[in-house]
UniProtKB/TrEMBL annotation:
<dbReference type="InterPro" id="IPR000225">
    <property type="entry name" value="Armadillo"/>
</dbReference>
<protein>
    <recommendedName>
        <fullName>Kinesin-associated protein 3b</fullName>
    </recommendedName>
</protein>
<dbReference type="GO" id="GO:0007018">
    <property type="term" value="P:microtubule-based movement"/>
</dbReference>
<dbReference type="GO" id="GO:0044782">
    <property type="term" value="P:cilium organization"/>
</dbReference>
<dbReference type="InterPro" id="IPR011989">
    <property type="entry name" value="ARM-like"/>
</dbReference>
<dbReference type="GO" id="GO:0016939">
    <property type="term" value="C:kinesin II complex"/>
</dbReference>
<dbReference type="InterPro" id="IPR016024">
    <property type="entry name" value="ARM-type_fold"/>
</dbReference>
<dbReference type="GO" id="GO:0005930">
    <property type="term" value="C:axoneme"/>
</dbReference>
<feature type="coiled-coil region">
    <location>
        <begin position="228"/>
        <end position="261"/>
    </location>
</feature>
<dbReference type="Pfam" id="PF05804">
    <property type="entry name" value="KAP"/>
</dbReference>
<dbReference type="InterPro" id="IPR008658">
    <property type="entry name" value="KAP3"/>
</dbReference>
<dbReference type="GO" id="GO:0019894">
    <property type="term" value="F:kinesin binding"/>
</dbReference>
<keyword id="KW-0175">Coiled coil</keyword>
<dbReference type="GO" id="GO:0035869">
    <property type="term" value="C:ciliary transition zone"/>
</dbReference>
Length: 710
């Protein structure tokens, strides 16, 4: 009996290679053994793929001609698919420029040195697993074939059900990861393919691949340090120059493989970190320190994974603090000069997350980020991120003056006036308002026609944000303030023109800042009829507090001129000012316990001065202080009342009655109570009168500083 062999090839789908300039052709081979009469006896199908590498493809390549050539030379592609080939080639030509890759969930990984275009079939998985029980070269081959299957997401469910294959991979990784970098990289890459999908994370966790990756990465970083030390020693030895060159070539080859391993390992961990608890376990194993150390590397694809991981971690305060302690900003600073757009963009996003911390902003300034970020403002794709980071830095008065020595302000001014009058970029103008609060910056802003252009935008469309910037500029003594003389009349006209209150406040504030000796305030008051306006709007209930404050400051400014002071006195405005002054103590008492420490300090000092000169206010101030202290005691008692049933007295495990006191501030949780011994004493009725409390503070109660008998 004669048998005949028949093979049939069916063309399949086309796609681009995830990392290379290449096309992937999926096809199916159907092999059948025919009987003597031509009837099929035995048949088998196998899914295969062919990689068509296009090394000559560049920006000048004629896509139509190349597509025609690909279709003619590859019989697996039907001529009807010519338009699809052209489209894929166009994508490779225009979307794979350096630094412009659009990464999918697995595009970070490139598998150099692996024969991935070798045919592999899911039905032959058992044969591949057998290779994992052989020597290292065979293990690498078997793992590579399984990886080839895993890269096709359609095979992952079948692989997941093959516990023998996954168990063998995990065992080989656990036992042999120190024996071969290629083997380790390949096996981790298999599990990486699973980690790209959330539904397979439990599988990766089950085989403890994440914990093993952490150990492998830590070991590789230590090995890298040893390589560096060895190279340095050979470099210092003048008699071993050739030996050093040989070691350097070997080191570069090892480094390439190591960085590929680090890349796939860290990306697997990044995928697993979608789960918060898993991320917490990584933090407990010092993942932040590991990532920051890896920032020293040069490979941009590896750095992209590292920065992306750090960006994800930075949203939690504990991780942000770890980055501050390891001085991550200093290592990130060099990445701002990278041509890799994805790396640059992710670095800026990470820096933006970190810039909310005051201490890290100081590190950014020390690392020289202000000039680097200022130069990036010219890049429209990165402009908004740079501006937000610089805005945060400009919030600190210590760093405002540094902007004057960069090209930041000229660029901002140009951007300000490019925007139309109907649209003002809030981030941009807010940044400029901060910078205008510094004297040196104000001089740079007002150079040339700077102030004139700002006044035009502030006065004509009546833009309150521009007027805020103008007001900040007007506060600086010197040549800048003198430039405002030409605009006093325009500002005064806005004040009496019944404009919106927030806009008038900025105009009044600007006028109040103009303490210029050569300015004829008397003429301004008369020409724009300002005195009646001020008198009418100072009446109680006629205006908001912010507006009244600016009017009072303006009255103080114009009263430095003797003739204006006489005009103000004759207008009858002084009694109104006295009435306002009488309301000040009550207002200060309301602010005695403000959350802002500086406000509390000013209020306490001012009230002490008032109390020294007015006995009635002295008693009221002391009563308010006592009431506040007593309310703290009541809150403490109420807090004990809601303690757990197992500890009804709120003493805690150590028997300390202060263990559960919490005033909201973790740094003064116990100190505030311990520093107020008056809270632990009471009279017979449970309270202390303000008079006794005051005597106690003065040391006049009882003998030896004690209280009267209860």
């Amino acid at each position: 009996i004669q048998y005949y062999f028949h093979q049939k090839v069916k063309g399949g789908s086309l796609d681009v290679h995830p990392t290379e300039k290449a096309l992937i052709v999926q096809y199916e081979v159907e092999a059948t053994i025919l009987g003597e009469m031509g009837e099929p006896m035995v048949g088998e199908r196998k899914e295969c793929q062919k990689i068509i590498r296009l090394k000559s493809l560049n920006v000048n390549t004629d896509i139509a001609s190349l597509a025609q050539k690909v279709v003619e030379e590859c019989r697996l592609i039907h001529p009807s698919k010519l338009p699809e080939v052209e489209q894929l080639l166009f994508y490779l030509q225009n979307c794979r420029k350096p630094g412009n890759e659009k990464h999918s969930s697995r595009d970070f990984i490139s598998f150099e040195g692996m024969e991935l275009d070798q045919e592999a079939n899911i039905n032959s998985i058992d044969d591949y697993v057998e290779l994992l029980y052989e020597e290292i070269p065979e293990k690498v081959k078997g793992a590579t074939l399984i990886l080839h299957l895993a890269r096709n997401s359609g095979n992952l469910k079948d692989l997941m059900q093959n516990k023998t294959a996954l168990g063998a991979l995990a065992r080989v990784l656990r036992e042999d990861w120190k024996q071969s970098v290629d083997l380790t990289t390949t096996i981790i890459s298999v599990f990486f393919c699973f980690s790209s999908f959330s539904q397979f994370h439990m599988l990766v966790t089950h085989y403890k691949v994440g914990a093993l990756c952490m150990n492998i990465i830590e070991h590789e970083l230590m090995k890298y340090d040893l390589w560096q030390d060895e190279l340095q020693k050979k470099k210092q030895n003048q008699n071993a120059k050739k030996e050093h060159e040989k070691a350097l070539r070997k080191y570069q080859g090892l480094l390439t493989k190591q960085e590929q391993l680090l890349q796939v390992g860290l990306y697997l961990l990044l995928n697993l970190a979608e789960d918060t608890w898993t991320e917490l376990k990584m933090r407990n194993k010092n993942i932040v320190q590991t990532l920051v150390k890896t920032l020293e590397r040069q490979d941009e694809e590896l750095l992209l994974v590292v920065v992306t991981f750090l960006k994800k971690l930075s949203v939690f305060m504990e991780n942000k603090n770890d980055m501050a302690e390891t001085n991550a900003v200093m290592k990130l600073a060099r990445l701002l000069s990278s041509d890799h757009k994805d790396l640059l963009n992710n670095t800026l996003r990470l820096l933006l997350n970190l810039s909310f911390d005051t201490g890290i902003r100081s590190q950014m300034v020390q690392a020289g980020l202000i000039p680097k970020l200022s130069s990036l403002l010219a890049d429209e794709s990165q402009r908004q991120l740079c501006m937000c980071i610089l805005y945060h830095i400009s919030m600190d008065d210590r760093f405002k003056s540094m902007f004057a020595y960069t090209d930041c302000i000229p660029q901002l001014m140009k951007m300000l006036f490019v925007c139309g009058e109907s649209h003002t970029d809030k981030k941009l103008i807010s940044f400029c308002i901060n910078l205008a609060a510094n004297k040196k910056n104000a001089q740079v802003i007002c150079e040339g026609n700077g102030l004139k252009m700002l006044m035009n935008r502030g006065l004509k469309p009546k833009d309150v944000f521009f007027m805020k910037m103008i007001r900040n500029l007007s506060q600086h003594d010197g040549p800048t303030k003198s430039l405002f003389i030409d605009y006093v009349g325009d500002l005064a006209a806005q004040v009496v023109g019944e404009e919106k209150e927030d806009y008038v406040i900025e105009c009044l504030g600007t006028l109040a800042n103009l303490t210029i000796p050569d300015l004829d305030w008397d003429l301004v008051l008369k020409e724009y009829n300002l005195v009646p306006y001020l008198k009418d709007h100072l009446k109680p209930g006629s205006a908001e507090d912010d507006l009244i404050l600016e009017m009072v400051i303006l009255i103080g400014t114009v009263s430095t001129d003797d003739s204006c002071a006489v005009t103000m006195a004759k207008s009858g405005i002084i009694p109104t000012l006295i009435d306002l002054l009488n309301d000040v103590p009550a207002y200060l008492i309301d602010l005695m316990h403000d959350q802002n420490a500086e406000i509390r300090k000013v209020c306490h000092n001012t009230l002490d001065i008032i109390a020294e000169h007015d006995a009635a206010w002295w008693g009221r101030v002391q009563s308010e202080k006592f009431r506040w202290h007593n309310s703290q005691w009541l809150e403490m008692v109420e807090g004990r009342a809601v303690a757990d049933d197992g500890d009804p007295f709120g003493y805690g495990d150590d028997g300390d009655p202060l263990a559960y006191i919490d005033d909201g501030d973790p740094f003064t949780r116990y100190g505030n109570i311990l520093e107020r011994p008056d809270l632990f004493y009471s009279a017979v009725n449970g309270t202390i009168s303000p008079e006794v409390f005051t005597d106690y503070l003065n040391g006049d109660v009882g003998q030896a500083g004690g209280f009267p008998d209860r």
